[in-house]
């Protein structure tokens, strides 16, 4: 019974961390999109070759795709 309680606690903590992780990834993706937009505003007309593709994070914190949709 003690082990079952411990497992339940760990499960609850894991779920909380997953929710937190999802929120943080969403916030990071918003920040990355903002950086990309600023980069395009500043560099599009002057130096378009200097535009660096900005990655988008997936829910596992791995790079999922670039801003232009490529992986």
From TrEMBL:
It comes from the Eukaryota. This is 4295_t:CDS:1.
């Amino acid at each position: 019974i003690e082990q079952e309680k411990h497992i339940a606690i760990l499960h609850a903590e894991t779920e909380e961390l997953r929710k937190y992780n999802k929120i943080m990834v969403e916030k990071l993706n918003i920040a990355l999109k903002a950086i990309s937009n600023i980069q395009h505003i500043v560099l599009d007309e002057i130096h378009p070759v200097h535009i660096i593709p900005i990655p988008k994070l997936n829910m596992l914190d791995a790079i999922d795709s670039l801003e232009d949709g490529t992986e």
